[in-house]
Design goal:
Layout: H1 3-13, H2 24-44, E1 48-49, H3 51-54, E2 56-60, H4 68-79, E3 83-87, E4 93-98, H5 102-116, E5 124-128, H6 130-158, H7 161-185, E6 188-189, H8 191-218, H9 230-266, H10 273-302, H11 306-324, H12 329-334, H13 344-350
Parallel strand pairs: 1-6
Antiparallel strand pairs: 2-4, 2-5, 3-4
Helix pairs in contact: 1-9, 2-7, 2-10, 4-5, 6-7, 6-8, 7-8, 7-10, 8-9, 8-10, 8-13, 9-10
Length: 366
């Protein structure tokens, strides 16, 4: 078995683990800092909206030897507006200029033909109205709102309302960070970006539900035992699914990283940047929020219940009494006779089961 696989098995059995819940204030602080940075970037820089949202013209030229920098200068001179130029696979150029009407488009097309040295009839010009982009934005917001409502309802029914709230906070956290990165980096926001944002919501929710399902199974009959608090079981649930979350995230990030860094960066396929950046940042943020935000938040909300407070008080008192007697943790657990049979799933999640001890019988005799 590989070292990572061995570590995953030990994490699942509860032999090793990291105290995610105990250090939750650190993760909350890190998340708040990142979120504030994203919001400031959004407020100061704003989003670089594509012509699909602002309206304008897109000119596509045949193969030309003109560089991107020179084409941007020529397009800006011909239109009076800043232009975005991308190199196409066939050697041509894709030139985007915002706030251009039909009459202005014909003038720019003629000027580009002269400056770039290509026949005017071979330059394709497409106009996009701002109303179309507004419709896309409105539908995206509507879809996002419906998605959030359905997520809260489903999680409240399948699990409980505290988990629904935690998942909703994690989703908002992922969206805010992703949008803020777009503002800081300056990548163009296109319909592909919207598709990427809606895609990462499903992935982030999947990763969160995996941990929640383990937590739900591990806390069955929790009030009928005095071994583990809710936060301790939540921490074991995270550790038990940690390797799976890491593997899933890495496998998902590899092809997206190829699109972003190789396709968009090395090969110059700039049109891939709009969707690949949202997927890359969103996938990473979704994996982070499911471990460091959603589950610790559920533990915080759950520990405020009177039953969980009373359980924690009993557990701490029992451990203090055991420490006063000089008993080890395992000795104290072996004397815990008040754990019913239906609490076995919790024990299976939080650690290895204790083998039953004989009651004065001689081995080999009945």
């Amino acid at each position: 078995m590989s070292r990572l696989g061995s570590l995953g098995a030990r994490l699942y059995r509860g032999e090793v683990g990291y105290d995610f819940i105990g250090k939750r204030k650190i993760w909350y602080g890190v998340s708040i800092l990142i979120t504030i940075t994203a919001i400031l970037g959004l407020a100061v820089s704003g989003l670089n909206m594509g012509i699909e949202f602002k309206g304008g013209a897109v000119f596509t030229t045949p193969k030309t030897s003109v560089s991107i920098a020179q084409a941007e200068e020529d397009a800006a001179s011909a239109s009076g507006h800043q232009a975005i130029v991308q190199k196409l696979g066939n050697g041509g150029l894709r030139i985007q200029i915002s706030e251009v009407d039909t009459a202005k488009s014909d003038q720019i097309k003629a000027q580009l033909s002269e400056d770039l040295g290509v026949p005017e009839e071979k330059i394709a010009a497409d106009l996009v109205g701002p109303s179309w982009g507004e419709q896309i934005a409105n539908k995206a917001w509507t879809g996002l709102g419906v998605f959030m409502i359905l997520v809260v309802i489903y999680l409240a029914i399948a699990f409980e309302w505290r988990m629904a709230i935690a998942a909703l906070v994690a989703l908002i956290h992922d969206i805010t960070i992703t949008v803020g990165i777009y503002a800081l980096v300056g990548f163009e926001v296109t319909p592909g970006t919207v598709i990427g944002l809606l895609t990462i919501l499903g992935y982030s929710l999947y990763d969160t539900v995996v941990v929640f399902d383990s937590l739900k199974e591990g806390t069955k009959g929790i009030t009928k035992q005095t071994r583990w608090t809710y936060s301790e079981i939540a921490n074991r649930s995270i550790n038990g699914t940690l390797v799976r979350s890491i593997n899933t995230t890495v496998v998902a990030l590899l092809p997206v990283a190829g699109l972003l860094f190789i396709g968009g960066g090395v090969l110059g396929a700039g049109m891939l940047n709009d969707i690949s950046l949202s997927l890359f940042v969103g996938l990473a943020a979704g994996a982070y929020s499911s471990i460091f935000i959603a589950t610790p938040l559920v533990a915080d909300l759950k520990e405020r219940e009177p039953q969980m407070k009373a359980l924690k008080k009993r557990i701490l008192a029992k451990r203090a009494a055991a420490a006063a007697k000089g008993e080890s943790a395992e000795d104290e657990q072996s004397h815990d006779d008040d754990v019913p049979a239906d609490a076995a799933p919790a024990a299976a999640v939080v650690g290895q089961r204790q083998q039953p001890r004989g009651h004065g019988r001689t081995p080999g005799k009945r």
